[in-house]
Amino acid sequence: MTEIIDNRLNKYFPKAFVYIGYALIGYGLLYLFIKILIGLGLIIIGIYLSFSFNGIQIDSKKKKFKKYSSFFGWKKGIWESYNDYPYLTMLEITEKETGYSRGQVEFTSKYKVYRVCLLNNSHREKIILKNFKNKELASKSAKEFANKLNVKLTVYSPKISEKTRLRKQKR
User: Of 75, 7, 12, which Cα lies nearest the Cα of 48?
Assistant: First the structure.
C-alpha cells in the first residue's frame, strides 16, 4: 500500500471571506429556528467559505504529486510527476495582507512564513510542500521530506541566464 503525504497549504478564500463564512454559519444556526431553508442555506454557504482550502498530496512511491482545492471534503486536482524536481529547499518568505476600512484607511499585516519546496534544476520552478511559522520546525521537516522523497536538500540559488547577466551589466 502506498503512503500518501497530505498537507494543507492555505485557505481557498481570503481571511475576510473566511470570517464572513463564520458569521453566516452563526446566523444560519439562529435562522434554523425561524426558517429552516434559509438557515440551512446560510450554513452551507458559510461552510463553503470558511472551510475550503488548497493543499498538496504526495505519493513518494509513484513519485507523483497533486495540487488540489478542497470543497466540502472533496479534493479536486490532477496527479503529476515530480521527477523534474530533484532538489528540495526551505525558503523564508514575508507575506503581506492589506485591507481597507470603510473610510479608506489602509491596514497591513506582515508575517514570516517558512516554505519547504521542491525545485527543478534551474531553481526557477517550485512546488510548495508545506508552510511553517517556525524556522526550526521547517528545517526539520525539510530534512524529513528530503529522505522520504529521495531528493537532495539544497540552498535556493536560481541560475541566471546569459541574457539576464548581460542586461544587468548594462545598468
Answer: 12
Does residue 137 belong to any structural domain of this protein?
Answer: yes
pLDDT per residue as tens, the chain (171 positions): 457 888 888 899 988 899 999 999 999 999 988 899 999 999 999 999 999 999 999 988 888 999 999 998 889 999 998 888 899 999 998 988 777 777 878 888 888 999 999 998 888 889 999 999 999 999 999 999 888 888 888 888 777 777 877 777 776
Q: Look at the chain and report how many structural domains it folds into.
A: 2
Residue 93, helix vs strand vs coil: strand
Whether residue 23 is found in the same domain as residue 36: yes
Establish if 101 belongs to a structural domain: yes
Going across the sheet that includes 87-100, the strands are: 126-132, 106-119, 87-100, 152-153
Three-class SS of residue 32? coil
Segments forming the whole domain that contains residue 117? 82-155
